[in-house]
Amino acid sequence: MLARHHDPIVAIATAPGRGAVGIVRVSGKGLAALVQALCGRTLKPREATYLPFRDAQGQAIDQGLALYFPGPHSYTGEDVLELQAHGGPVVLQLLLARCLEAGAATDPATGQPCLPGLRVAQPGEFTERAFLNDKIDLAQAEAIADLIDASTEAAARSASRSLTGAFSAEIHTLRDALIHLRMLVEATLDFPEEEIDFLRKADAHGQLSNLQQTLASVMQRARQGALLREGIKVVIAGQPNAGKSSLLNALAGAELAIVTPIAGTTRDKVQQTIQIEGVPLHIIDTAGLRDSEDEVERIGIARAWDEIAGADAVLFLHDLSRQDAMEYIAAEAEIASALAQKLPQTIPVIDVWNKLDRAPAAAAIAAEGAGQAETRRGVWLSARTGEGLDGLRRILLEVAGWQSAPEGLYIARARHIEALRAVSAHLQEAADQLQAQGPALDLLAEELRLAQNALSAITGEFSSDDLLGVIFSSFCIGK
Ligand code: GDP
């Protein structure tokens, strides 16, 4: 474990800006002297005490609640002190600075610094300690970040389930079954004569196929959970006035629209997140898909195309009321060929025929083929009246791979899905070995060992410092 994991740390735990309450949090081993310096008294564990937080001269910086959680019964597993003050940025900065100063100041009782080495925490460092001190496993730690970042209620609820350990419990069940099977196989390695008979009697084959079935079910739910976390990226393309913003508003209107600026995106691309059945859809409006002489606009358009290339689906919006205008139709063909050229073939393009209310003939055709008004590749609707929107929603969920919204989903990440895939591949190799004529038991044992390792990576039983760095650095400071 790196030395930095032993430093005492401090951070403002609440979001920047003004608020009713703001929290400064300290974690370290042995906080008693610091508590005395800041609060002028000792604190009863896990009891809120209202008191002044004092500066070095004994003047109150603010009054508030102090909470002291001696380790290991704390969030990080170390001693934790929480100071709940008024939520102004200056007050909190003063308190933070005061903590650092008090940590470095000499404790009159010992003649030593109150809390040597106290420093400002890195993002996610409190949670990283909780993980390193076995308060939570890695999947639970990730669920904390996912809960904070959740963009829909369903995502928040499933993150909350993962946080309580529901996902980890499934992984442990799989792991235990795997260990059982490994013990069986490895025992036979010692008695090569009876090996095959022994495995047959113990129904190794049945055990393995049960394991594969359980894994498939976990994977299926993890994929759905990942969908809740990541959502899908949908680009709306089409000519000006086709009704792109109207469609976005109509889709967002029925459900809670949450506008989340995604990190790294710039203002030249409009992205909104809406939800359908709790699945976040990040919708990108590409108003500017056209030839342009303007250099700035061209850069914007090039970026828009980059975004489109990374989309999971494209809605190509057509205006039914302008289908008899030659120029309009010609421009449609241009966009269509640009999409065909620039989009990978795997990305579905859904033709959306808008303004059905203004095209009675088309409406009649759509009605005639009732049920066929929507196909995987096309849907007829009116963003204004809302007719046909449900069909579009269904198609989008289908494209996303969303199956239903079963209770008991847990949030999952791409990292988990990859690990589960690796487990599945090793189990399949193992199953092939087991079925082969004269199976190579050492290879079988090796595949099972690799499967177990891949599984354990999810909960972080074996995890490199690099991986931890990647995971925890995406947290907010103070968490
Ligand atoms: P954008 O430029 O593609 O974003 O198009 P807008 O959403 O701004 O819509 C352009 C115009 O078409 C506006 O006047 C909308 O009110 C109108 N419009 C959009 N959808 C419909 C529809 O379904 N029916 C009718 N009649 N008008 C629509």
From TrEMBL:
K(+) binds at residues 241, 260, 262, 265. Binds 1 potassium ion per subunit. GTP binds at residues 241-246, 260-266, 285-288, 382-384. Its EC number is 3.6.-.-. It holds the Pfam family MMR_HSR1. Gene3D superfamilies: P-loop containing nucleotide triphosphate hydrolases, Probable tRNA modification gtpase trme, domain 1, tRNA modification GTPase MnmE domain 2. It is found in: Cytoplasm. (6S)-5-formyl-5,6,7,8-tetrahydrofolate binds at residues 25, 82, 135, 479. It comes from the Bacteria. GO terms for molecular function: GTP binding; GTPase activity; metal ion binding. Mg(2+) binds at residues 245, 266. Residues 231-401 form the TrmE-type G domain. Keywords: Cytoplasm, GTP-binding, Hydrolase, Magnesium, Metal-binding, Nucleotide-binding, Potassium, tRNA processing. Its main location: cytoplasm. One of its GO terms (cellular component) is cytosol. Its cofactor is K(+). GO terms for biological process: tRNA methylation; tRNA wobble uridine modification. Homodimer. Heterotetramer of two MnmE and two MnmG subunits. Exhibits a very high intrinsic GTPase hydrolysis rate. Involved in the addition of a carboxymethylaminomethyl (cmnm) group at the wobble position (U34) of certain tRNAs, forming tRNA-cmnm(5)s(2)U34. Belongs to the TRAFAC class TrmE-Era-EngA-EngB-Septin-like GTPase superfamily. TrmE GTPase family. This is tRNA modification GTPase MnmE. It comes from Acidovorax kalamii.
